Amino acid sequence: MRWIFALPLMLSAAACNAKPTDESSHKPGTVWTVVAGQLVTLTASDGVKVFGAFQHADHPKALILLFHQAGSSKDEYATLAPWLAQNGYSSLAIDQRSGGGLYGDNLTVHGLGKSADYLQAQKDLKAALDWGRKQKLPIILWGSSYSSALIFPLAASEPQGIVALLSFSPGEYFDSDKQMVRTAAAKIAVPVFLASTKEEGSDADPIFAALPKNPADVRFVPEHGVHGSSMLIAKRNPQGAEDNVRAVLAFLDRVTAAK
């Protein structure tokens, strides 16, 4: 039986139903805390330079590839990447070409001069996965909002080395194919942690339902939540971040212990 957390939820203005939000109540360019770690520059298949920050863990259990939400950057993981390292998980957080200054400057967007379409960021996620495979560790994909949807087709088409997915506020966000994420989800063989607010259930639930019956899957509906990976950030979700982080760590430790 799959793990399902269905808890009462306080309403959040950041929740969305049809499209990912850029949480634009924060001024673009506002820096909260810049991700510490080693600067990494990747080259996507079309030649675009993709910037990232690598956080090393001693004796890592796995490498987590961290992908941000709309209007955001790698600095969405400024507080989460060090916490992951402390708990035994190395990570690479990248600046996708579709993003902005929600948590800090997006160097990839800055280099291009403008933010691109969500689907164009698929090349950036693939570049991160190619880099990750060279590290010779089990790989976990982690997405936020639109990128939490993109990790499903990536894992479906490139399953080698991927041991789990964490998807925060996914949906069928892509007008070119409103079945794309569910179709890909049906092909995922590894455990999935799928989190969203109660209000986002109409977007997230069909994706979870499309997954094969993996007993390690988790459908997490937090008691206190906001959109995307922001539900884990104390500054964005002071009432719920701590509990939500605990649920994530329990899943991570469970899936890596099985390896």
Question: Structural class of the secondary elements?
Answer: alpha/beta
Label the overall shape. globular
Number of strands: 9
Please give the CATH class.
Alpha Beta
Average pLDDT over all residues: 89
Order of helices and strands: EEEEHEHHEHEHEHEH
Strand content: 15-25%
Helix content: 25-40%
Description:
The chain starts with a strand and ends with a helix. The radius of gyration is 16 Å and the shape is globular. Mean pLDDT is 89; it is low at 4-18 and 21-33. It contains seven helices and nine strands. 54% of the residues are buried. It has one domain (3-257): Alpha/Beta hydrolase fold, catalytic domain (Rossmann fold, 3-Layer(aba) Sandwich). The chain is of the alpha/beta class.
List key phrases describing it.
259 residues; alpha/beta; Rossmann fold; nine-stranded mixed sheet; 27% helix
Short précis:
Helix content is 27%, strand content 19%. The protein is of the alpha/beta class.
Write the SSE topology.
Elements: E1 3-6, E2 38-43, E3 49-55, E4 62-66, H1 80-86, E5 89-94, H2 107-112, H3 122-133, E6 139-144, H4 146-157, E7 162-168, H5 180-185, E8 192-195, H6 201-210, E9 218-221, H7 241-257
Parallel strand pairs: 1-9, 4-5, 4-6, 6-7, 7-8, 8-9
Antiparallel strand pairs: 2-3, 3-5
